[in-house]
Amino acid sequence: MGVEEITEITDISPLPLVSLNHVSFLCRSVRESVRFYEDVLGFVLIKRPSSFKFHGAWLFNYGVGIHLLEHNPMEAEFPQKSRPINPKDNHISFQCSDMGVVKKKLEEMGMEYATAIVEEGGIKVDQLFFHDPDGYMIEICNCDNIPLLPVSTSYNLKPTKGFSEGVGCGFVENLMMEHLNANMINFSF
Questions:
Q1: 3-state secondary structure (DSSP) of residue 29
Q2: Catalytically active residues, by annotation
Q3: Tens digit of each residue's pLDDT (9 = 90 or more) over 66-113
Q4: Residue 177 confidence class, pLDDT cut points 50, 70, 90
Q5: Beta strand 114-120 with 44-46: parallel, antiparallel or unpaired?
Q6: How many CB atoms lie within 10 A of CB 91?
Q7: Which residues pair with 9 in a beta bridge?
Q8: What distance, in Å, lies between the first and last C-alpha atoms of the chain?
Q9: For residues 86 and 130, is the Cβ–Cβ distance under 8 A?
Q10: Which residues face 125 on adjacent strands?
Q11: Rounded distance between C-alpha atoms, residue 143 and residue 7, angstroms
């Protein structure tokens, strides 16, 4: 196999994206998955629109939402739950400030995980992989050790507002969290 050369296309402008809003997962039990994302990953259950005609839940933290959709066995077969932990599987990844604390918590909870180390130019990144209750892969890492260097010169990376200043959340996230307590009533379960 040869290496394919990437040609830069400079006359196309990207979509006017601002940030990642949410990821969505089909799950066997919304209740069990909510508990996992709250207890293990620190997400907060938030109100979802009552107009939805299917069982689900929305969670939010770290500037991103997770939308859980309960599987309807009449619509399709649910993917196999127990698969080996494979770092090359589809996954979502969360930046972490202390990998030791993550390992300790997962061990205390009796959760199986796999670790890997990526090295680039003498810089090391620790990775830890595990599954949620439905078999979706989750990675925890200290990936910010490696600088983001665009391969293409035609696009600029857009910094997250407040992220580089250590503030963490943008306007929308702060607004959501301010109203979280007031809107915790009338969950759509």
A1: coil
A2: 139
A3: 999 998 877 777 766 678 898 888 899 999 999 999 999 999 999 999
A4: very low
A5: unpaired
A6: 16
A7: none
A8: 51
A9: no
A10: 118
A11: 27
